[in-house]
From TrEMBL:
Top-rank lineage group of the source organism: Bacteria
Span of domain Glycosyl transferase family: 189-346
Residues of the Glycosyltransferase subfamily 4-like N-terminal domain: 36-181
UniProt keyword annotation of Transferase present: yes
InterPro entries in the cross-refs: Glyco_trans_1, Glyco_trans_4-like_N, Glycosyltransferase_grp1
Keywords: Transferase
Pfam families: Glyco_transf_4, Glycos_transf_1
An annotated Gene Ontology molecular function: glycosyltransferase activity
Keyword Transferase part of the UniProt annotation: yes
Signal sequence region: none
Protein name: Glycosyltransferase involved in cell wall biosynthesis
């Protein structure tokens, strides 16, 4: 039996919120199901939290930690075979791993780029970007302490090497999976009376939903009754809604945050995922839409070039080119058979390539290599 201590950075209650926290939980719970693995997941507790510090959450052993020092103490006490962590608060524990001889893995969701010194002076300390810079630097320090750093795509491996300075022999990628209990295609998809496009995600500037609205305006010139569903919330929502008012863009509906089952239903009853993100380390939105049988039109943004195989399951466009984004979406609107064929291939290729169980098997194999002192490749 191999004992593994993981630090998720999220309390169990936050997994219900979806997003990155839920993806981390899916990954850890899949690892816990592998035979021969005894996994305990440590999570941060606040002083006001009244829940028990130790217990079981959905079949996985969990343990609350109130400080980075307590995490390091827990590591010294438990002496696991592997320490697997996902947040930079584990920096002290990672340092302890080196002194204790415990192999360590640090998981980075999105390796951040760091600006040069003169750019720092242009960013006010109170700005959100400043906080992201500081978080990125802490992330890099933690990654450099680990024996191996893992990321969710081959594209992210390149970013990891450029931005974090992690050498090739210490980095690996494992694709995220998809919750196929919720995200699956309809056996017989009815035809919509009007074209329905959809995109989902956090409504933030780096997702470029304003470009999505520009592309949708172009689509409405030929298909005036077309609809656009925008799912999610964030700091850009009010501005995006105002753009729709100012430019008289009809047919756009903002759904806000919805459950996984509601999101899957919205995907299944739409025709095309039109995604405007210009930077992705994996692309959960694209993978989940593909699993529901949607063809994808998106930019050549990071790992989306790994998910979308043009022209088999979607169409790729040059980054920032809203006219081509609209043109390719209209090509699919005009050709229902092409749309259907791409959608079927999207669902098939997604199931074949993106599985939490497949990811868990690869990571458990990595555990074995690290614990035996072997080469990770």
């Amino acid at each position: 039996m191999m004992n593994v201590l993981a630090y998720s950075g999220y309390p169990p209650a936050s997994y219900a919120d979806g997003g990155g926290a839920l993806a981390i939980w899916y990954g850890l719970s899949a690892i816990a199901k592998v035979e021969g693995i005894d996994l305990t997941v440590a999570f941060p507790m606040r002083e006001e939290d009244s829940c028990d510090s130790e217990g079981v959450h959905n079949g996985v052993k969990v343990r609350g930690i109130r400080s980075p020092k307590e995490l390091a103490d827990c590591l010294r006490e438990a002496r696991p075979d592997i320490f697997h962590c996902m947040r930079s608060e584990s920096l002290e524990a990672l340092k302890s791993c080196r002194s204790l001889g415990i192999p360590s893995i640090y998981e980075v969701r999105s390796p951040k780029c760091f600006p040069c010194k003169w750019q720092h002076k242009l960013v006010p300390p109170y700005h959100r970007q400043w906080k992201e810079m500081l978080a990125g630097r802490k992330d890099r320090l933690a990654a450099r302490q680990a024996d191996v750093v893992i990321v969710p795509s081959e594209t992210a491996i390149g970013n990891l090497r450029r931005n974090y300075g992690i050498p090739e022999e210490r980095s690996l990628y494992f694709y995220n999976g998809v919750d196929y209990e919720n995200f699956y295609p309809l056996e017989e998809k009815p035809d919509n009376e009007v074209p329905i496009l959809i995109n989902a995600g956090r409504l933030a500037r780096d997702r470029h939903f304003d470009l999505l609205l520009k592309a949708f305006q172009l689509i409405q010139r030929e298909f005036p009754l077309a609809q656009l569903r925008i799912v999610g919330d964030g700091p850009e929502r009010a501005r995006l809604e105002q753009i729709c008012v100012d430019k008289s863009i009809d047919g756009v509906r903002f759904f806000g945050v919805v459950s996984h089952s509601e999101l899957a239903d919205l995907y299944r009853t739409s025709d095309i995922l039109m995604n405007s993100s210009e930077s992705e380390s994996f692309g959960n939105v694209v993978a989940e839409a593909m699993a529901c049988g949607l063809p994808v039109v998106c930019f050549k943004a990071g790992s989306l070039q790994e998910l979308v195989i043009d022209p088999m399951n979607g169409i790729l466009c040059e980054i920032g080119d809203d006219e081509t984004l609209a043109s390719n979406a209209m090509t699919l609107i005009r050709n229902p058979e092409m749309r259907k064929t791409m959608g079927l291939e999207a669902a098939r290729s997604c199931r074949e390539r993106f599985s939490w169980d497949l990811r868990a098997a690869g990571i458990v194999e990595l555990y074995g290599k690290l614990s035996s002192g072997g080469n990770i490749f």
